[in-house]
Structures are given as structure tokens and as C-alpha cells.
Amino acid sequence: MIFKRGQTYWYKFTWSLKQVNGTSNSFLIRRSARTKIPTEAEEVEREHRRALRLGEIHPQGAWPKLPAPEAPILKEFTNRFLAYSKLHVKESSLEFYKRSVARFLAFPDLANEQISKINPEIVTRFVGSRTGVGISAINGDLRTLRRLLRLAFEWEIIPRMPVVHQLPGERTRDRVLSFPEEEKYLVAAGANLRALTILAVDTGMRPNSELFRLEWAQVQLEGSELMPFGYLTVKQGKTQSAERLLPLTPRARETLLIFKGRAAQEALGVPRPGKFRAFGQYPKISSASDSESGSGLISVLLLAPHVRNQMHGERHGPTHSGQTDGP
Question: Is the Cβ–Cβ distance between 37 and 44 less than 8 Å?
Fold first, then answer.
């Protein structure tokens, strides 16, 4: 019920809470509606009852709820965002975030806006200010802005996640290697790098988690009805689903047979950690039986540090003159 005290309306009602032991506790709730209009006082009472019914507040809790603190403006929150990123992302990502943040701060309409009030209209104005810039570069900044706002939402600084749409028509980085390009590369590459490339292309193994961990025990060169050229057993990888059997192609099987049949004096050794060596400078494996163990030819070849660098793009083609890429 509502009643009037002076010029202000109040409301009063009783609310019961059932306890775990089956008993009930009753609470007398008497609050000021802070209005001089009776219909508004009735609306405040209904909202209070709704919050109690949904368990949003306790009968002895304050109502109306205290207003949430105002969200910071973007240029104030960017320092917290970069400090968090410094601890949780790699250095290259942090540098990318810093460059994007600098561009946010250079646009006053965005930099001086509360992060809770950033909307597509403000984002559109920011995009319009990036004249002469490619779509990929703009979308990179928009992804940074979206990550910043999501972090504010996770920290409960803003009540909802603002919408940030990327621009359509971005040219992605995915690129399919053509058959002529593959052939040209294999002709120019040395024996070891050529073997790595063939295994990677024909089996589709992931470089770090699968290809570089391959050992002779995982290689089956005897064919079967379903896999006539043999297969590779992937025991572990990026996910649990990575455990699988990969059939070999004729050229992948031939490549493995070549390495498996090498004489002991032609086998490869493991370079010392941190040292770059051309393949021809590696120490030799003492006996052919070493290539059958976990430290065999496949492991030696695929675990070579500079081979990983080559596969990751530090050197994408045949080695420079004066360096031998294969024995």
C-alpha cells in the first residue's frame, strides 16, 4: 500500500522468505517512493516486489538499487587494457594493440566517449576518418576495439557488450599453393626440406604439434587394402581429435623409404641447441639402428630448429649460395 508523508508518497508491505528448515521469516518493508505522484509511487512498489520475487535483492537490502558507477572514457581505460595485454598476450600482439590504441586516441569522438556509450554510429565515424587505409588495417583496429570492450564487459565495468561490426570485403591471409608453385619449390629445395614439404603437403599434419614430433615408430610403410602405400600414426596433437591414421601418398612413401634406406654415414645428427648448422655439417648417427629408435632419422630431420624456422616462414625458399640445405 502507499501512503503520504508530507508532500512525498511512501509504500509499505510485508514480505516472507521461506528458510531451508521449512520456517518462514517475515519482513516489514517501508520505503519512500521519492515522488509526489501516487501512480509513480505504485510503480516503485511494484518494481520492488518484482525484484524481491526474482531474488535480485534481500528484503533488508537497499531499494532502489544504488546507481552503477559511470564507465570510464575510452582514453582512461586503454591504460588498463594495455597493462592486461602485457601480461596475457605475446609481444607482437601487444605492439599491434598499442598502435591501434594510438589511433583510437587520435580520434577525439571515440577517445573521449564513455566505453558504455560506444555504439555503431561512433565506430562508423572512426572508420570514416581512416581515409586511404585498406580494409584489413581498419578491421584490425576494430578487432582491437572489440577486444577492449569485451574485457570491460568481463570486468563488469559496462553492463553489456557494445556492437562492433567489421567491414566486409577484407582480403584474408589464406592462400592456396598451386601445383606449379609446389613443383617449382620442390625442385629448388634441398633434400631434407623437400622431404619435410612433401610430408606436410601430402598428409596435412600440423607443423609443431604433429610433423616435428614424428618418429619412426609412427611410420608404417607396409600397405593394406585401405591404405596401399602405408600410413602414419599421429599419437598427439593440438586437440584430442588429433589422434588419427594418415594414409601415405606414393611420393610420401617414396620419400620415407629413401631416408629409411640411407647408410649410417649418410644419416643426419642432431645439432647442438642454439647453433645454426647446414645439414651437411651435422654429426653422423653411429649406426643404422639409431634411425629405428625415437631419436631416429625422422626425429632428427623434423626436430632440427632451423627447419622449423623455415617452415614458419623465416626462410621460404632454397638456402642462399654457400649454405647447403641437404646432404
Answer: no
CATH code, 74-154: 1.10.150
* Domain map (residue ranges) of the chain: 2-53, 74-154, 179-311
Whether residue 152 is predicted with pLDDT greater than 70 in this model: the reply is yes
Instruction: Give the pLDDT band of residue 192 (cuts 50, 70, 90).
Output: confident
Distance, CA of 30 to CA of 27 (rounded, Å): 10
Q: Tell me the three state secondary structure of residue 305.
A: helix
User: 270-311 pLDDT, tens per residue?
Assistant: 443 443 333 333 333 333 334 344 444 454 454 444 444 444
Which candidate, 306, 300, 303, 264, places its Cα nearest to that of 284?
Answer: 264
Eight-state DSSP code of residue 55 = T
Q: Which helix (H) or strand (E) holds 86?
A: helix 74-88
Running DSSP on this structure, what letter comes out for residue 168?
S
Contacts of 99 (CB under 8 A, 6+ apart): none
CB atoms within 10 A of CB 24: 8
Per-residue pLDDT reduced to its tens digit, 101-144 = 999 999 999 999 999 999 999 999 999 999 889 999 999 999 99
Question: Is residue 53's pLDDT more than 80?
Answer: yes
CA 114 from chain centre, in angstroms, equals 27
Cα atoms found within 13 Å of the Cα of residue 132, Cβ hemisphere only: 0
- Dist CA 257 CA 23 (whole Å): 80
Q: What are the φ/ψ torsions at residue 183 (nearest 5 degrees)?
A: -65, -45
- Cβ(167)–Cβ(139) below 8 Å: yes
Q: What is the pTM of this model?
A: 0.46
